[in-house]
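Lecture 7 notes: from sequence to structure.
We start with the chain below.
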Amino acid sequence: MTHAMRPIRETIALDEALGLMSEHAEPITRTERTLLTGAAGRVIASPPIATMDVPPFDRAAMDGFAVRAEDTFGAGRYEPRVLQCIDKLYTGQTPSRGVAPGTCIEIATGAPMPEGADAVVMVEETERVSGTDGVRVFTPVYPRQHVGRRAADITAGQPILQSGDVLNPSRIGAIAAIGALDVDVYARPRVAILSTGNEIVQPGKPLGPGQIYDINQFTLSSIISAHGGEPIVLPTAQDHLDALSEAIDAALAEDLLVFSGGSSVGERDLILDVLVARGEVLFHGIAVKPGKPTVFGRVGGKPVLGMPGYPTSCLSNGYMLLVPMLRRMARLPEYRPQIVRVPLARRIVSTTGRHQFYTVRIADGVATPAFKASGDITSMSRADGFFEIPAHVDIVESGEIVEVKLF
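Predicted structure tokens for the same chain:
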């Protein structure tokens, strides 16, 4: 049975497409425990509760001498107070004796404060009396000066961080500070990647006549991993309804299904048929270039995104559509790529009525077009980023400053 060619009649604006996808991107509710060693970039589900004070004891905040502050009152450069040094304390040691009036203990930064001492005189403000245990103190200190107070940082019983916080190095450090080895995080959204087409072959295998290697599963997998998702690559599906329907059944175990290939207007593009038969189509066709033949729908309550098969269109769609949706599902904040403002090397004529993503190389402080054609992955691989040309703009002049979002 042959299918008639189906042109894409109704394209929707990019903003409208993004809005629809956002509506159907349910934030993940599954949680799991993960070790701190692998927790970078994960999102806290339930905040850890401190079971101890941090720091767990009063400690010296400077190298110097632990003293009773009142013993230093009135000290000056020419009238030092002289104290007897009775001991030396390193970090990790417990003080074996206290500080009585007129005495002091040499102390290292981070060592526990001895009984009786309430301040630390910095070593720079002192001088040893040669041949004795005497220490000259040249400046007064007030009580608690240069002392890190017990629980100054964290009090036992208080939650560390908040649900929804993304774990960066300092937040992971705060969890380690309370002695925890693992943390409750939201699961990563599982994204099924399904490449379709009789011509697609896995890299590593020999190509037959008319065949090409599957590029999209690799580019999409790396985008998904970088933005909080877990890519699940499914075996390539052949171009017939039964094979696609079976592939969708396998994919429905995951949180989101991303097809590549099979959503344009060729007579053999069947994803639309499968979506219509099995679920609902929310849009088919976006007024963007590249990436117009994009389909989005739902099957069995799961969102399904059908990307163009052309690698550059698939890749720009990945950045433009998949990343915002995936980050919302993963509970990550909106992605803010690095942006550089540079002049355009040459004039560009754009397709009016379509929002264009234009890839560029940046060299010698100017942006040079890198785009060849939707099928060319090499042009994309040499590009440093892209800038956007709104649908209502048809010409961008040479020398005009453009905002390039870096890959």
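Points to note: The CA atoms of residues 49 and 378 lie 50 Å apart. The helical segments are 14-23, 169-177, 216-226, 241-251, 271-278, 311-329, 377-381.
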